[in-house]
Amino acid sequence: MIDSTETIEEFLAQHASDVEEEIRRAAAAEIMPRWRRLAAHEVDQKAGPHDLVTDADRKAELYLTEALLALLPGSVVVGEEAVHANPVSYEALRGDAPVWIVDPVDGTRQFVRGEPGFCTLVALAHGGTLLASWTYAPASDRLATAQQGKGAYLDGERLFAGVPEPGRDLRVATSDPDYTTDEQKHALLGLRTDGVAPRSCGSAGLEYLAIAQGNSDATAFFWEAAWDHAAGLLLVEEAGGAHLTLAGERFRITGGNALPFTAARDAATARRVVALLAGGA
């Protein structure tokens, strides 16, 4: 059993590239052969017509679960599809073991439509603290990585989120209307003001990457699922960005956050987005 952050850091120093390789292998074996080739029987609904799951999701998560547990003995996996099958497994985020947080296909709707806007997300956390993350977009073969205190990178190049350009509308990706309540839609009205350009998000993981690159300015999200946010939040933070909940606190992957929350290129932008959302509510 890994029993200290120091030993996990040693693991990452030796095996981060192995994690990258396993993510690429999972995508090559289980995701890309099904992209634009899905049969009807390979696509199912979970909680409704907008909540889709495919054989690519299920099989890639199984592949990654086996590979990641073998790389780090004593760790556990919290994966989207496994939690759907057994919700109590989500509680591992609050346990003592190192946790791999896995979203095998983030942006399943885009994947089903044959669009390239999907990715595989993996993060490693311990004691509620994010230590490393991987965001892999297999359709474009882009890989973004981050480690706590060591920066964020895209295909080996350092990422810096920077600050929004003065005089330009703030570009904010928001929770999709298909997944928001009337109350949440009302809160989002706070972003419909001069100087802000809100739009519905696609893959959450790719929205976080866009912020880390400086190609988008912020998010406004209403859901907590760790597999959607963990990898991207560390990526944004290590690129110099910030994240903030409606209570003015950092987002916690273990849950219990005051929603909505934002991730942004800088702390000032995060505070501005939260203030606008509070006004909309």
Automatic annotation (TrEMBL):
Q: Which organism is it from?
A: Streptomyces caelestis
Q: Which cofactor does it need?
A: Mg(2+)
Which keywords describe this protein according to UniProt? Hydrolase, Magnesium, Metal-binding
A single GO molecular-function term is: inositol monophosphate 1-phosphatase activity
Looking at the Swiss-Prot or TrEMBL record, what is one Pfam family this protein matches? Inositol_P
Q: Where does Mg(2+) bind?
A: 80, 103, 106, 228
Protein name listed in UniProt: inositol-phosphate phosphatase
Tell me the superkingdom of the source. Bacteria
GO BP annotations listed: inositol metabolic process; phosphatidylinositol phosphate biosynthetic process; signal transduction
Catalytic reactions of this protein? a myo-inositol phosphate + H2O = myo-inositol + phosphate
Q: Which Gene3D superfamilies does the annotation name?
A: 3.40.190.80, Fructose-1,6-Bisphosphatase, subunit A, domain 1 (3.30.540.10)
Q: What is its EC number?
A: 3.1.3.25
